[in-house]
Design goal:
The protein is α+β, with helices and mostly antiparallel strands. It has 2 domains: 118 residues, PDZ domain (Pdz3 Domain); 166 residues, no CATH class. Strands 5-4-6-7 form a 4-stranded antiparallel β-sheet. It has a 3-stranded mixed β-sheet with strand order 9-11-10. Strand 6 and strand 7 form a beta hairpin. Helix 2 crosses helix 7. Bound molecules: zinc ion. The site of zinc ion has 6 residues, from helix 7 and helix 10.
Length: 363
C-alpha cells in the first residue's frame, strides 16, 4: 500500500484553509432548522442505518449459506455445525444507537433472533426474526455482554446429541423449537464497512465490503465473489502463499499488509502494493485457481445456471487498467474467458453425471 506522506501534505492543507477563510463567506440565508428537528431526523437516520445493516447482512448470509453448506465436503477439516440464524442484543449495538435499538427494535440485554436464512435448519425449525431466546438445552439463555457469542458456542457444543431444544418467546407467547444443524464450511462471513469494491479471505473468514455489495448486480454475482474467496480458504491459499512469499524473501510486514489489505481480492484496482515478483507470479496462479474452483462451488450450491462472467466486463469498466494489468491477478479478459470455459466444463460434467469436482493437474 502506498501511504500518503502526511508531512508533505499538511502545509498544503493549512494554506488552503487559510485562503478559504479569507475570501469565501456564505451570502445566502440557509434554513437550518431547529435542534429538535435535527434530533428527530438523527433518530430516523439511526433507525435507517440499523435496518440497512440488517438487510445487507441478511443478504450476505442468505447467499453465502448454500455455498458454505453444499461445499462442506470440499472444505477438508474446516467444517462445523451451522444453523442459519443470527442473534443479537443491545450489547451488539454501538452506544449512540442503543436508544433507537431499544425503542424501535425492542432490544434489551436478552438475545433475540435477528435473521433466519431461508432453507437453513433455523428456517425448517420455524424460528423467526424477533423471537426472544429464553432457554437453550433446558438452561437459561445467556444475557448481556457477549451473549451472542456464548449462545453460538453453546449451540455448537450441544449439537453432538442431535437437535437442540430452544425455548423462545414470540410476542410474549412461549414456544418450544427443536433446532437441528447442517454441516458447513467453517468460515465466518463478515460484512465490512467501506465503499471500496473488495472482498478477501484470511484462511478463517470471508470479508465482503459494502462497496462490493453495491457493485454486484445480482445475488448470482455476489455468490461468484463469495465462491472465489471460499476457494482461497478451502484450498489453503493463505498458508501456501505465505510460504511462497517467505521463500521469495518478502518480509513479514509486507505479508501482513498483503493479507490485511486484500491483496488477493477480486479486483486488480486495489492491489497496488509492493510485492516480491516471485510471490506475484504465484499469486496470479492462485487467483486463477480460486476463480476455477469457485465455479464448482457455485454449481454445487445451486447457482449453476447463473450468468456471472459479465461481472468481469463491469469490473473492467470500473477499472479499465485491469484489462491489461497482470500484477497480482489475471487480467479481466482472462478471468472472463476462464469462467466461460469452466462453466462449459461443469455443464458437460452435469450432463455426463460425473462428480462435480475440479480437474487436477497431472502429477
Ligand atoms: Zn482472490
Amino acid at each position: 500500500m502506498k501511504h500518503p506522506r502526511m508531512a508533505d501534505a499538511l502545509p498544503i492543507l493549512a494554506a488552503t484553509l487559510t485562503l478559504l477563510a479569507a475570501c469565501a463567506a456564505p451570502t445566502t440565508a440557509v434554513p437550518i432548522g431547529t435542534a429538535a428537528m435535527v434530533a428527530v431526523e438523527t433518530d430516523a437516520q439511526r433507525q435507517y442505518v440499523i435496518k440497512r445493516q440488517i438487510s445487507e447482512r441478511e443478504r450476505l448470509h442468505r447467499v453465502a449459506w448454500p455455498l458454505l453448506a453444499a461445499n462442506a465436503p470440499l472444505c477438508g477439516n474446516d467444517v462445523r455445525p451451522a444453523f442459519g440464524l443470527t442473534v443479537w442484543n443491545l450489547d451488539n449495538v454501538a452506544d449512540e444507537f442503543k436508544p433507537v435499538a431499544r425503542t424501535d427494535f425492542s432490544l434489551s440485554d436478552r438475545l433475540s433472533v435477528q435473521s433466519v436464512v431461508p432453507g437453513s435448519p433455523s428456517d425448517a425449525a420455524g424460528l423467526r426474526p424477533g423471537d426472544e431466546i429464553v432457554r437453550i438445552g433446558g438452561q437459561t439463555a445467556p444475557r448481556g455482554r457477549n451473549a451472542s457469542q456464548e449462545f453460538v458456542d453453546r449451540l455448537t457444543a450441544t449439537t453432538a446429541d442431535g437437535p437442540v431444544v430452544l425455548e423462545v418467546a414470540r410476542q410474549q407467547e412461549p414456544l418450544t423449537i427443536e433446532l437441528a444443524s447442517a454441516k458447513s464450511c467453517d468460515y465466518g462471513i463478515v460484512l465490512e464497512d467501506g465503499g471500496q469494491i473488495n472482498a478477501y479471505a484470511d484462511g478463517s473468514n470471508i470479508m465482503v465490503t459494502r462497496g462490493m455489495m453495491r457493485f454486484v448486480e445480482s445475488d448470482d454475482e455476489l455468490a461468484l465473489v463469495i465462491a472465489h474467496e471460499l476457494a482461497h480458504n478451502a484450498m489453503g491459499h493463505v498458508d501456501s502463499k505465505q510460504q511462497n512469499a517467505v521463500a521469495g524473501g518478502v518480509g513479514g510486514l509486507l505479508i501482513d499488509l498483503l493479507f490485511a489489505a486484500g491483496g488477493y481480492d477480486t479486483g486488480g484496482a486495489f492491489t497496488d502494493m509492493g510485492m516480491d515478483v516471485g510471490a506475484v507470479s504465484y499469486s496470479v496462479e492462485f487467483e486463477q485457481e480460486a476463480d476455477y474452483v469457485g465455479m464448482y462451488f457455485l454449481e454445487r450450491a445451486g447457482f449453476g445456471g447463473a450468468t456471472v462472467a459479465d461481472f468481469w466486463r463491469r469490473m473492467a469498466a470500473e477499472d479499465p487498467g485491469s484489462i491489461d494489468e497482470r500484477w497480482s491477478h489475471p487480467t479481466t479478459p482472462e478471468r472472463f474467458i476462464m469462467i466461460e470455459l469452466a462453466k462449459a466444463e461443469i455443464e458437460q460434467k452435469v450432463q455426463d453425471g460425473v462428480p462435480l469436482v475440479p480437474n487436477r493437474r497431472p502429477e
